[in-house]
Amino acid sequence: MAPGDLEAVAALARRADPFGWTLRNFQDALASGYPMTVLEEDGAIAGYSVIMVVVDEAELLEIAVDPARQGRGLGRRLLAEAMRRARAEAARVMHLEVRVSNARARKMYHSAGFEEVGRRRNYYPADPSTSGGTGREDAILMRRDFPGV
Ligand SMILES: CC(C)(COP(=O)(O)OP(=O)(O)OC[C@H]1O[C@@H](n2cnc3c(N)ncnc32)[C@H](O)[C@@H]1OP(=O)(O)O)[C@@H](O)C(=O)NCCC(=O)NCCS
pLDDT of 38-88, one tens digit each? Predict the structure, then answer.
């Protein structure tokens, strides 16, 4: 991901997730040197991922595919590339958080070898109409070990 990609990436984030990252979040992450990847299709940005690696632990901070291009394997490819980059930076494990209600992403992570290891209560802001009026939603914590690094 290059500085010139950030406007398009932030616009995609808004389309993919109403609570997703803002342009400022992406600018800060790029300035911090986080490994960030864009996936292009037909000359357009189709998806992106952002990871952070601290010593030997990686965290998947963001991953999204343009809603018009979802369900065709692009998310799986982005996740595989994010894991490849984490391993290239000597990570032995990758952690992530995902909304309880995000069945599609949870399934993608399970197929990529992640397991559910915990739950954070009321971690995310949520639409009150879909969260029993609380305006909050739990996060599922997931991890995948990279054996033999
Ligand atoms: C999660 C997301 C990145 C997946 O991207 P995608 O390109 O649609 O996913 P893929 O086509 O690669 O499918 C990956 C897996 O997701 C699951 N999946 C995909 N579409 C699905 C659907 N309609 N229903 C249920 N599961 C689905 C499947 O397990 C699939 O693997 P399989 O095809 O081997 O069964 C995408 O839906 C997205 O951007 N969502 C909004 C942002 C988001 O939720 N990010 C994750 C935050 S933690």
Answer: 999 999 999 999 999 999 999 999 999 999 999 999 999 999 999 999 999
CB 105 within 8 A of CB 126: no
Q: Given 62, 109, 124, 137, which residue is catalytic?
A: 109
Phi, psi of 24 (to 5 degrees): -60, -40
Q: Which pLDDT score, from 0 to 100, does residue 149 have?
A: 52
Residue 131 clears pLDDT 70, i.e. is over it: yes
Residue that has been written with the tokens 């992570």 in this structure: 109
CA–centroid distance, residue 58 to ligand 1 (Å):
21
- 3-145 in CATH: which number? 3.40.630.30
CA-proximal residue: ligand 1, atom 24 (nearest): 104
Which sequence spans correspond to the domains of the chain? 3-145
State whether the beta carbon of 101 lies less than 6 angstroms from ligand 1: no
